[in-house]
Specification:
binds N-carbamoyl-L-aspartate; 39% helix; 309 residues
Length: 309
């Protein structure tokens, strides 16, 4: 499939990982590799608006960097909850309707699941979901999958252990859905019951024939993994501080865990990390999380090119 056919098949908005198929992913990854390091004007006169109702470092800055590297411009509000008219009571729908007339694309991060889909209903330009509460984070999943392919050389048959906050962590949810497109993938979800993955995701994975298992300790599955995908416990989404405390310290990757991890396996994390990966792990060549974050720029360049060029 060519880039143009792929573009025509895009839905115009990027809301969920479930929009993507293997052909589209192959084209996107090839474009990301081709665009890495490029600086030109192919998106000259195109404007991306960033509407962020929740904090972000990597997602917002890597999207902005991607846009600027392709000659586009960026407008936006970084703390939309307090510094946009939301504080005056404006609805998300009204804001999005207006911003649609100011920009060619809206990058939206919001604290409610389903917010990106709501925005897409009223937007007259593409909406990209940069994280909707505990819902999804499809562009993070794209860069995660791209990282797995680059680090391991393939995705088919890969064994991934998702660890940490699988209840509220949107990146793991989206990545699991993308991995389901590849035959032979086997997934383990490693978390205490209070933050274990939701039945909604498990049933979607099982419907696609993905082999899934649940565990409480990483050591239960560590011999049988190619990727450990660690995640932060999403403090901001807990209503019970006691539950958060129980969850926070449940799974930690340190030197002792690294000694048990197969030599060819990698450790990923969408970042930011708090204390779920000890700093001593950073110097291990299997620690792929900073390389993973760097891949975000190329993937987002490819995505912006597909949506805007
Ligand atoms: C993640 C997010 O915002 O969902 N960060 C990111 O986008 N790289 C993960 C997190 O906040 O823990």
């Amino acid at each position: 499939m060519t880039a143009t056919t792929a573009r025509n098949r895009m839905l115009g908005h990027v809301i969920t990982a479930e929009q993507f198929d293997r052909d589209l992913l192959d084209v996107l990854f090839a474009r990301a590799t081709a665009l890495a390091g490029v600086r030109d004007d192919r998106l000259a006169h195109r404007i991306m608006a960033t509407l962020f109702y929740e904090p972000s470092t990597r997602t917002r800055l890597s999207f902005e960097s991607a846009m600027l590297r392709l000659g586009g411009a960026v407008i936006g509000t970084e703390a939309a909850r307090t510094f946009s008219s939301a504080i005056k009571g404006e609805t998300l729908e009204d804001t999005v309707r207006m911003v649609s007339t100011y920009a060619d694309l809206i990058l939206l991060r919001h604290d409610e699941a389903g917010a990106a889909a709501r925005a897409a209903e009223v937007a007259s330009v593409p909406v990209v979901n940069a994280g909707d509460g505990p819902g999804e984070h499809p562009t993070q999943a794209l860069l995660d999958l791209y990282t797995i392919e680059r680090e391991l050389g393939h995705v088919e048959g890969v064994r991934v252990a998702f660890c940490g906050d699988l209840r509220f962590g949107r990146t793991a949810r989206s990545l699991a859905l993308l991995l389901a497109l590849y035959p032979g993938v086997r997934l383990a979800f490693v978390a205490p019951p209070v933050i274990q993955v939701g039945g909604d995701i498990l049933s979607r994975l099982e419907a696609r024939g993905v082999e899934c298992r649940l565990a409480e300790q990483l050591t239960d599955v560590i011999d049988d993994v190619d990727v450990v995908y660690q995640t932060r416990v999403q403090k901001e989404r807990f209503t019970d501080p006691l539950e958060y405390e129980q969850a926070r310290t449940a799974i930690r990757i340190d030197g002792a865990i690294m000694r048990q991890l197969p030599a060819t396996a990698i450790v990923m994390h969408p970042l930011p990390r708090v204390d779920e990966i000890a700093p001593e792990v950073d110097s291990d060549p299997r620690a792929a999380y900073f390389r993973q974050a760097a891949n975000g720029v190329a993937i987002r360049m490819a995505l912006l090119e597909m949506l805007l060029a």
